[in-house]
Amino acid sequence: MAYTIHYRRGMAMTLPHQPDLVSGAIGIGLKHQHADALLEIDSGPDFLELHAENYMNAGGPVQERLLSLAARYPLSVHGVGMSLGSAEGIDPRHLERLKQLVDTLQPALVSEHLAWSRLDGHSYNDLLPVPLTEESLEVLCANIDCIQQRLGRRILVENPSLYVRLDALNTFTETDFLDRIIERTGCGLLFDVNNAFISAANMERDLGGYLADIPWHAVGEWHLAGHSLDEQASPPLYIDDHGSPVTDAVWHLYQQVIRLAPQIPTLIEWDNNVPSLTRWLEEADLAHRQRHTTLGTGDTAPFVASRAVS
């Protein structure tokens, strides 16, 4: 069985069938220390998400294990190093490595951050904020177009967590900026609920107004994670550190937004202080219970991840 993906320039690619993401799927991140157990357990997560850069150029036993996982679980590939906001364009070597990984794994979802991390050939180990300007919009759209053309598929772009005010530079609101990117490129939105909470707190943003303007029709994935509070900062600063369970405040926000796109898959991130697989799956089970409490549904109809890009 195969399915066809169309994107906005009219190109179509026929790809081998992959395991479907069910409606409302709950996934966890793929960590090397859990890989063997994930292949052995009877009841695992609905899908796995891996960081692209951890598996570029993987070979030998690592690739064999990854392919075994791909045969059992739907996969999501999440990039952290493409530097979508870089004015010097996409690094062609990095893009080719991503294409090779995507072609090999055929993941249900591919995503990247709305950020930049490369300048004058130097890569920074951080996701740096993009000014919300017309110039940045042109850069981002060109870079997203470049990636989608090379991959032959739609990608999702993640809303940022904010720590620095760029109000003096910004000429768009974040939601208007996201909407224009989506309209111009046909990409989707990875809505990180934890990022939305953190940005609202750190930027003293009206969270209700922000949520009212999000282009919910374009959301293709939810992210949930824990955060910390740096009380030594002035004023105190929320940090998106992915090092703890999801907080009650973020669960509450999740319950609000999933009503707007209930079929979308959810990823539980936990990248620091990584727990046991059992504990992580407990957090995924909590997400299922939150969904059931909020939506009152056990729907398992297939989720169509590869929506056409107009």
Tell me, briefly, the overall form: globular
Question: What's the structural domain tally?
Answer: 1
Report mean pLDDT, rounded to a whole number.
87
Report the portion of residues in β strands: 15-25%
SSE pattern, N- to C-terminal: EEEEHEHHEHEEEHEHEHHEEEHEHE
- What is the β-strand count? 16
Unreliable parts: 1-17, 299-310
CATH class category: Alpha Beta
Give me the number of helical elements.
10
CATH architecture: Alpha-Beta Barrel
Largest sheet at a glance? 8 strands, parallel, barrel
Biggest sheet: strands side by side, in what order? 4-5-6-7-10-11-12-15
End-to-end separation: 24 Å
Q: How big is the Rg?
A: 19 Å
Query: What is the CATH topology assignment?
Result: TIM Barrel
Tell me the structural class.
Answer: alpha/beta
- Helical content band: 25-40%
CATH superfamily: Divalent-metal-dependent TIM barrel enzymes
Structure characterization notes:
The protein has 310 residues and is an alpha/beta fold. The chain has one domain: TIM Barrel, CATH 3.20.20.150. The chain is 36% helix and 21% strand. The chain is built from ten helices and 16 strands. The strands form five sheets. The protein has an eight-stranded parallel beta barrel. Strands 1-2 form a two-stranded antiparallel ribbon. A two-stranded antiparallel sheet has the order 3-16. Strand 13 (228-230) and strand 14 form a beta hairpin. Helix 5 (134-151) runs parallel beside helix 6 and helix 9 (248-257) packs across helix 10. It is globular, with a radius of gyration of 19 Å.
